[in-house]
């Protein structure tokens, strides 16, 4: 409870009366009587404020919010008293979130209810908590303001922007892939696995005829196909210090997570199972391959609170952990930012994985380095920066070439092109049936 502006003005007036009494222009008893009356009024008003019932409040908040778009929070207020209740409200939303529509001044009608909506924009992924709603409630005579905390705390989880995934779900695999930048080639054949040769049957497509076998046997021979078995895709994400770099409004890891979920959406629709291994320093977070409609929900739940940490990634520990967890052969997509100092350890880790799995390495290319390398070197400082960036990129490409010679499928890609590049390479491997 704290004094309201009216109380401060009354105290100022009483002080001026005291000055007048000290100058002999007002009897001292009148000043004392005014002070006693003011004290009685203040005590009575404070007592009435304490006895005033607080408004009832319920917060309506979605349990899951997407990162980026504005979200709406609804406050349902009810006045339990028979008098009007003017309030000044401020909901205790997570710090750092942009808010539109708070704080708010409202007046509740006697015994009435009111709904207030305000907008907030999450600024990061993870679990977040809303405290109670702070309310300033004036006393009946407006001498005091009481601070009340209304409602119960609530929480929500902020996921990557799944609105993009919903848009992809409404498109065919071809259109969804092209919408994120994948350049697809026409699919050849039946899209199924070859099983055996057999005699030609009436109605068989000409594409099924094996002309070499026909020439050898002097009769028409057709290929028999069976439906492709579901394959498994493992997203192996670097959550170390390399992913803290910023490219546009998002950190590298946010770009990686968005691209990985877009790829997972396509792979699940293709009938494959998708798993996740997040490398956190020397620790890992593992989600076994999931299949079907619920697979995306599990992937979102497993990765929504992942963040890059200022730690060095242990590639060998991650590779060993994956070998233990994933016994079946799979397409392992490793997403990191390759640097020349990673040469030995990363090569050992990828070599270990390649013994059992088909490995694709997506190496993020920082836009700032490309800009620095192509910056005209007019001044000495600019020339040195440009030469350093060019040397760094050359050493990075050297590591890439070494990995390619050892059989690793390497993608050198910028963040803005990552989704399209991953989906394009996945579909090329999937339709080539290389697992």
From TrEMBL:
Residues 196-370 form the DUF58 domain. This is DUF58 domain-containing protein. Pfam families: DUF58.
């Amino acid at each position: 409870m704290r004094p309201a502006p009216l109380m401060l003005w009354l105290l100022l007036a009483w002080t001026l009366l005291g000055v007048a009494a000290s100058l002999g222009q007002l009897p001292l008893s009148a000043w004392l009587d005014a002070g006693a009356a003011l004290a009685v009024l203040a005590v009575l008003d404070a007592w009435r404020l304490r006895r005033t019932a607080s408004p009832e409040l319920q917060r309506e908040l979605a349990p899951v919010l997407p990162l980026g778009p504005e979200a709406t929070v609804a406050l349902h207020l009810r006045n339990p008293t028979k008098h009007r209740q003017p309030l000044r409200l401020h909901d205790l939303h997570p710090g750092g979130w942009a808010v539109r529509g708070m704080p708010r001044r409202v007046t509740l009608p006697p015994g009435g209810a009111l709904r207030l909506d305000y907008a907030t924009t999450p600024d990061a992924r993870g679990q977040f908590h809303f405290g109670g709603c702070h309310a300033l409630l004036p006393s009946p005579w407006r001498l005091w303001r009481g601070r009340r905390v209304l409602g119960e705390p609530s929480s929500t989880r902020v996921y990557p922007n799944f609105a993009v995934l919903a848009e992809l779900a409404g498109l065919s695999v071809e259109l969804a892939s092209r919408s994120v930048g994948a350049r697809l080639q026409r699919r050849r054949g039946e899209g199924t696995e070859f099983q055996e040769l057999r005699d030609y049957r009436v109605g068989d497509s000409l594409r099924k005829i094996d002309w070499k076998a026909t020439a050898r046997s002097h009769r028409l021979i057709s290929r028999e196909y069976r439906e492709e078995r579901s394959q498994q895709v493992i997203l192996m994400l670097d959550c170390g210090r390399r992913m803290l770099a910023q490219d546009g409004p998002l950190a590298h890891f946010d770009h990686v997570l968005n691209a990985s979920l877009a790829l997972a959406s396509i792979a699940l629709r293709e009938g494959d199972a998708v798993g996740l291994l997040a490398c956190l320093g020397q620790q890992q977070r593992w989600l076994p391959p999931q299949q079907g409609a619920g697979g995306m929900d599990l992937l979102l739940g497993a990765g929504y609170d992942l963040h890059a940490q200022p730690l060095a990634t242990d590639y060998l520990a991650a590779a060993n952990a994956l070998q233990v967890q994933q016994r079946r052969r799979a397409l392992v997509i490793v997403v990191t930012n390759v640097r020349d100092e990673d040469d030995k350890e990363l090569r050992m880790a990828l070599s270990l994985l390649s013994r059992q799995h088909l490995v694709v390495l997506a190496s993020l290319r920082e836009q700032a380095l490309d800009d620095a390398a192509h910056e005209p070197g007019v001044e000495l400082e600019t020339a040195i920066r440009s030469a350093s960036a060019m040397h760094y990129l050359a050493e990075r490409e050297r590591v890439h070439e070494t990995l390619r010679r050892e059989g690793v499928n390497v993608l050198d890609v910028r963040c803005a092109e990552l989704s399209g590049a991953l989906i394009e390479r996945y579909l090329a491997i999937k339709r080539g049936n290389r697992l």
